[in-house]
Amino acid sequence: MTAQRRDSRGSGRLRASVPAGEDYPRRRTHREPDPATSPGWRASKRSSKLGKRVRKDSRSAQRRQRLSEGVRATKNGVLGMLQIIGTAMAGAVGLVLVLALLALGVNAGARWMAKRDAERAATPEAMAEKARENLLIVGTDGTTAEFLAVRLDERDDQILGIAIPSGAFMEVPGQGFERVGDSYSAGIGVSLAAVSNYLTVPFEHYVIVDVTVYQDALTNQSLRNVMANAQETDLDDKQREQITEFIDSVSGDRTALVPLPVKPIDLGGQTFFEPQRDKIADLLLSWWDVKLGAEDSAVRVIIYNGAGTPGIAGIAAQQLIAAGMRVVDTKNADRFDYDATLVVVQSGVPEQGEQVRAALGTGEVSEDPSDQDVADVIVIIGRDYEPPASSNQ
Question: What is the span of the domain harbouring residue 375?
Fold first, then answer.
């Protein structure tokens, strides 16, 4: 039996009837799913949450991995770049070291070759060959002298000469820095050494003539009257004949006798001349193959007289100059009782001291480094020094 009810609000409407015995639900409640029709529902829901969490954790892990890989890649890149830079720097340093070692080797080789050439050039045979064509013509009035340094160039059939006035100042062995004309009073050997030392060209032979013959030769640019009017010479008859024939065979346009460029200096009413060696550089190079500054490659020596024998330092200077060395000064030592000759290497090398000792025939070689740049070797002549028997004085 179906019951009908009126609306409680008294609207007179009948509400839907419900079966008798059943109460009408007053509100809609949450409907639970039927476990029979929805198996595993709660498990699915739990699985869905767990899956989100797993996916989130996975994405986080992936981000961390990508970040780690990026950091690792950056680190590897930086390390690789540093390795490249380091390798490049090591290569550059290695190249610089190789170039430096190569330069040192080249310089050492050049120094060795220069030293070998200097040693060969300083041998008696080499010096004699250099001096073979050279002749020093001395014009004198009996007290002073003027000099004509001549080369008799047989290969090119020419005569070349530089006239040196007596008032030219230069290093005179045994006398110091003095007028070269005054060297003649100490002996022709001193004059030969002074001219050779100044020009760095060896002169071993000489012809002495009257000063008027000397002056005529310069004026006429001819040596044809020199040999016939020789007052004194060290040439033998055969050498004199050969030189005379050669002089006569050379035409006038193949003879050049030029004055040494000098700068006049007035000292106490007397006129002296300062040689301008740089102005004859071309002549020295073309005539004797001597380069300006070549004297710097020769062993530079200062000689002191420590034996007390007059003129002994000048004689030693002549020996060293004849051996291809350059004497820059000669003077007295602090005392005259040196028994042994001392050869002291200051700005040079020990080998140069040995060269000096060999040229003198005696000497105790030692080293005493000094900042001075005037001489390579200092020599103090002692009583053990014996001048050569053929020394010109």
Answer: 298-393
